[in-house]
Design a protein that fits this description.
- By secondary structure, this protein is of the alpha+beta class.
- It has 2 domains: 3-75, OB fold (Dihydrolipoamide Acetyltransferase, E2P); 82-226, Trna Endonuclease, Chain: A, domain 1 (3-Layer(aba) Sandwich).
- It has 3 helices and 18 strands.
- It has helices at 82-94, 152-166, 193-205; strands spanning 3-5, 11-19, 24-29, 32-37, 53-58, 66-72, 77-79, 105-109, 112-113, 116-117, 120-124, 127-136, 138-140, 143-146, 171-177, 184-187, 209-216, 221-226.
- The protein has a 7-stranded mixed sheet, with helices on both faces. The protein has a 5-stranded mixed beta barrel with strand order 2-3-4-6-5.
- β5 (53-58) and β6 (66-72) form a beta hairpin.
- α2 runs parallel beside α3.
- The protein is globular, with a radius of gyration of 18 Å.
- The mean pLDDT is 95.
Length: 236
């Protein structure tokens, strides 16, 4: 399985102090209290609790000088940074490392179609594929799950995928299971029962729902350990 190098600069070890809002986390870094940008808008209660260890990278511009990328989770770091997750996905597509997307290339990011704005338009020859990518960083037994909280945005995106499918478009939903040692993906009803039902509706219609399992190792590289993580209806 591939190892993806994303970060060329220094990685900083941090300890979470508190989450101030959806996008800002106060951390201890090299003996100082600093603020980190958090790109993941999920609740992340199990990761952004006081005392949790993690990794951050420096960023340019704005009032925040660091971005939180990972939080330690038993066997490695959960890659909670959604920006990093999609960069890994893009590299895997470009390098033909996802068997079920072999030959596809990224034609555009955030394509607008009908009343929808999705994550990617991929292409292979004359075939086009609209893709929505979601972050699954909730550990649920032996599974990675999504979502961990109510999400109107997530509801809208899955509804858009279903509408496109019913209008004859090729579509796919991909979950990035960014946790070490998970065996499958499953939707999380307690997070958002509407999203849960929509995922099963999409699956019942025949819309491909795929998952990729990966985590951040202590060197700051991303270990992609399963590019075809199965869907499971129950978790152990």
């Amino acid at each position: 399985m591939p190892i993806i190098k994303l970060y060329s600069g220094k990685l900083y070890k941090i300890k979470v102090i508190e989450r101030l809002n959806r996008f800002v986390v106060k951390v201890e870094l090299e003996g100082k209290t600093v603020l980190c940008h958090n790109t993941n808008t999920g609740r992340l209660h199990e990761y952004l609790s006081p005392g949790m260890d993690g990794l951050a990278v420096s960023i340019d511009g704005g009032r925040l000088r660091y971005r939180l990328i990972g939080i330690f989770d038993k066997y490695g770091y959960a890659l909670i940074d959604t920006y990093s997750q999609v960069k890994v996905f893009e590299k895997l597509v470009d390098m033909d490392l996802i068997p079920w997307l072999n030959g596809y290339r990224i034609l555009s990011r955030h394509p607008k179609i009908l009343n929808s704005k999705l994550d990617y338009l991929l292409g292979s020859g004359d075939e086009e594929l609209y893709v929505e990518v979601k972050s699954a960083v909730l550990r649920n037994g032996n599974a990675a799950s999504y979502p961990d909280c109510p999400t109107e945005r997530g509801q809208r995106h899955i509804k858009d995928i279903i509408e496109l499918f019913r209008n004859g478009y090729n579509v796919m939903i991909i979950f990035i299971a960014a946790l070490p040692r998970v065996e499958c993906f499953t939707p999380y009803r307690e997070g958002d029962p509407i999203v849960y039902d929509l995922i099963y509706e999409a699956r019942g219609l025949g819309i491909p729902i795929k998952s990729i399992a990966l985590y951040l190792n202590s060197d700051g590289n991303v270990d992609v350990y399963n590019v075809d993580l199965p869907f499971c209806d129950s978790v152990g």
